[in-house]
Amino acid sequence: MQQARIKTSYWGLIIIFGTVFVLVLILLATVGILLFTRQNSSSTAPSIITGNSPVNRLNTEAIDPALALASLGGVPESDLLTEAIEKLRPETALATLLFSPNLSAKESAGGFLQLAAVYAGGNDFEKAALSYRLAGTVATLAPDLPDTVRADLFVQAGEGLAGIARPTEAKYYFDQAFVIAANSPYLQAAHRRRIFERLHQNYQAIGERAAARESLSLSANPPSLQLVAQAGAILPAGEPVPLPEAAQTAEANRWQAAQELAAQLVLLGGEAAPEAVAALAAALKAEDQQKLPYFFRQLRSVFKLAFKIRQFLLVFSFQRCCQRCNSFRRSLSTQKYQ
Questions:
Q1: pTM of this prediction?
Q2: Distance of CA 25 to the CA centre of its chain
Q3: Residues 171, 215: contact at Cβ < 8 Å?
Q4: Which of 85, 196, 264, 269 is most buried when burial is the number of CB atoms within 10 A of its CB?
Q5: What domains lie within the chain, and their CATH numbers?
């Protein structure tokens, strides 16, 4: 009896100390990851873009300097995109689409479709295909697009790719639209019918007869699905960051310097005084000096909150493990005595 109690206590202590050891390891790993993340976030070393990123396809030499500076001068990104496409400045439009986080998903996808048409008109079919694919990527990943818009974007991307002799890629996007039309509960019957009618024509154009026949059949008898109201956005809308007064002043100075430099580029046919270029560079550096410390302070506060939540969860888990170990040990002791 005595040996049984000693053995039970021995195994209970092993379980408790083993659990404590594992939790300490998890805590140390969490602290290490937090410190590593903070060091990386404060690093100012530029990142090297490698691989098949669309940024690697951007011809920076063909970017219109005056238009590019317009965004630094406070011109809305959507207006800049429209002007670049209307003036047939495709590389400027591509740079705007790739580096403008304030454009909505609908604006980005529509911009890529318009840009693809400009590239195709200039016989740059590789860039046109890239732009159609990027429009399809936005349609795939954007969480806030209605299914009617998403399906239309897929169809337009497929039609554009078919028009530049990319039938395999075109079929991929037609298939995406087909899946939405056949299965989405957010589409009315009239919308389904129109999508299937377009798909019937498009599948025929690329030689996909079986898919064309199926689309024709479904256009005459669309799937009878119960209509569900379109769900709202999954993610909350972002709010503007409230910048300190000094950062706002630095931003206004950057706007003014960029506007003056852009005006000189227009008046002098692409030339500008070195003083104007130096003034914009100084304004950008001053803006960074005001904004970066503020952004890093905000990030640190978020990391501190996340670390406190992890601490609480670890302590709570440890307490629960201890309670379970004690219950387990008591149950073993009770069984031995019985």
A1: 0.68
A2: 33
A3: no
A4: 196
A5: 1-29+245-338 (no CATH), 64-220 (1.25.40.10)
